[in-house]
Amino acid sequence: MSLQFILTVTLNGLTLAALYFIVASGFSLIFGLMRTVNMAHGALYMVGAYIGFAVFDPIYGSAWYSYAWLIAIVAGIAAVAILGVVMQVVFLGWMQGQELRQALVTIGLSIIIADQLLANFGGSPFQFFAPDMLFGPVQVPGVGRYPVFRLFQVGLAVAVGVGLWLLLNKTRLGIMVRAGVDDRQMLAACGVNVPLVAATVFALGAALAGLGGVIGATAQPMALGVDARFLLISLVVVIVGGMGSIGGTALGAILIGLAEQWGQVFFPTYSVILTFVIMAAVLAIRPQGLMGRKIA
Amino acid sequence: MIMMTNRQWLMTGAVVALLLMLPLFLPNFWLANILGRAMVYGIVALSLTFLAHYGGFISLAQTMMAGVAGYAVAMMAPTAIPLGPFAMSYGYAIPLAVLAATLTGALVGLIAVNTREIYLLMITLALAVGFSLFAQSNTQWFRGYEGIRNIVGPEVFGMPFRTHLVFYYVALITAVLLYLLVLYVVRTPFGLALQAIRDSARRTSAIGFSVALHRIGAFALAGFIAGCGGVLITFYNIGITPSSIGLWPTVAVLIMAVIGGLGHPVGAFLGALIYAVMDTFASSIIGHDRFNTLIGLVFLTIVLVSPDGVWGIGKRLAGLGGGKEPVSDPVAKLTAGGK
Lengths: 296, 339
Description:
The structure holds two protein chains of two kinds. By secondary structure, chain A is mainly α.
């Protein structure tokens, strides 16, 4: 096993982890503030990709084609953010505190969303074309030629992570969110419009799923069934990393991404199992996740 | 929750007698493809209702436990195509398969022993989907995407298992026995301690019960029930594939249990029946192939309007509680303030 091979597999794992982080951080954010397990997160990922592509496809054929990808990202994020606000305001907000009921509602919504996507867009796979700047290979020391888009994925994930950290730790909204995690009622008593904060957080978390959808469908072809995969990835990543912790989500994503890639090297058939062995081991040793706070 | 009154025994007996006589009136299609199917999937939903109502666990791993039994019986079945390495007669294969599901249930309980509520939901979902992905990627024993075919079941009194009448009666008798088993178990010391743990784990452990052992025991029993259902489902489908135990079938069992009502074991069968009827006639209700939207809407409506399901609606309409006893709402109860 050459050094180049080791580096390549590790880099593959990290770029995969970057995508997982973008998607799972939205899931973790929503859970962190509202204790809502958004089982529709995978469906939101798919909505981002499908709406993004519906916008991308006609523009790519026109004179504006070089902007198509960026417009698709904006459209995907906006559509999913709006959908997230609707979910929170119409369905989830008024049953705050009934966590299982909320989870069941999001399961119902995800079934309807996935079926409607199938009905309106059909089931054929598609893929975004990255803009020229992010297209093609680039020379990476020690690895050789590597798709530049996958490196961009890592940069984007770092930007998302840093952005979320700044948002949560350095802004007024972040203060309100963190206060809401600890004590919602007291926050409301202080005069903060908690439902508005909740809707904002839900929009943000959903938007990350939408962003992940477009990014993911640029890196790999998009097909039906990815909603299940990304819901599962989000679950495992936040269970391993710890609920509601940005650092924990990053750690969980890196662990799962690396485990998936290295697992495929060592035991191709059972690489899926490795992910779940990690999850079970973390649960046995630290039920709250590697960086999670103790479950009350 | 309460031991059955004379009236309830009478009603149960009447329903079972009616179901036993139905083959005289109903066409074979209804017997096997709607009622029989509702019963075998209802058994898996029953295992979830048992865990949810008496243990307070909403587990999404019940389809996985059924799948373990299904795959186990398929690997050991003498008729399997391709024939497994452990082929033996159904007389041994079926009990071993149910045993495997029971052990899987205990294992799931062990993994999830420290988790509750929403965490349990997530972990069991991850385990269930993980198992189906594993079955899909393993070609040596699980035969990958293709799965294992031609699991026709044993002959009963010289008749093939897939005969409509044989399948219907075996499913009915198994379902009734397991239903009564659940009602019996929840009155045993084990079942009572389980309900005490549901209401307050700390207090129950303070008076000397092992919370962990009771939880694992409950999951093992749920595994046994789901395993019986899984074997029958495999015979019903004449085989098993990874997609039959994936995310969607997992959620389908949850939908059945919730639509029927998590407040009473009978809800599992009600929900499974509603699901089977809708699945069969969806195309004539809302047009081609949009079954998922229909069932999703029904599920969403039930969760939003009546979290205790059809059974809860019926109970309120019949006024069985006399207005004094609040209708049991396990979903709300489970989530109320994390008791």
